[in-house]
Amino acid sequence: MGDRVFNSVWNSLLGKKKKGELKPMMKHYLTVLLLFICVPAYAEEPSAPVSQVQSAAPAQPSNLTLFNFFTEGWGEQWTHRETPGGAPDMALLHVQTNFLEREFRFDYYGQHNLSNDSTRTVQFGDALIAYGLDRRFMLEVVGNYAWKNAAPGGTSSDGSSGALVGRVQLVDVPGSSYALNFRVTSPNEGIVPSGVQNNKDTTLFPALAGWQDLTSCGLKRVGLYFSLGEEEYVGPTKAGQKHRDLVYDLSLAKTWTEPTVKCFGNFTTFVEFYNTTNLDGLETGANAANVTPGFRVTLFPKNVLMGGIDLPLNTPHDFNETYRLTYIINF
User: Which residues of the chain have pLDDT under 70?
Assistant: First the structure.
């Protein structure tokens, strides 16, 4: 099956048809999560691969590839591709999104830190509007607010920041989608910084995001998501602080219901593996690895609810767990 997935990724792009260690207890947990996503897909009757008839149907938009990057999609009416019988291409909690959107999105998370940490909890909320101008380019504006609640004897703080995101669609064909994201985030100077990092840095984050529908590989309505990007922190320098890190994510999502099911459309369970590796600073090579099991459901047309829990995988780690909730309104 691995060769088929690799070939599917390659053909889509061409436009053709040392610090953290994994906690031992988490190895069994990860195995269960993978089985939770993958085994039920094998138990169901496998779907047929995406056919030429489906990809050529009137409801299907034209294919966007690297070969026609300069000639197709620019100035065309925005649309989001949906392939009958396949896994839906959707936004999740961590992985960078690989398609262009028109939506309002609201995110919240509550982080519970270790008992010996100077910060007891962190609360965070953001709101964004994303608007695909055509089939190749999208703009997104984000505003957020964070609260750091200190342990007894510590200092609590709060503050806001904003971000601007641009997204370019590289590939959009039945079963595959790839996009290049670029995000600029302003510093949140109201938050008391942790360790050697300061709170005066602007963050630059280019990232490549992709998605593959694994239905044609025998995994009915299962999607594979991935993203990779390097964050750069630009601003005043403190001794020993990091200036760059590598952020990467690998996610699997299994959709169990059809989009037309009332209050339970496209019910999806997913698991995301998310890691950040420091590329410089006092802790060069240190990792912060997490796993996030979660769910996503369409409550009624164009309204989506998502939830999940971040669990740390490496030791030492900075928090016990983080609870996430997201609401999306598409338009």
Answer: 1-58
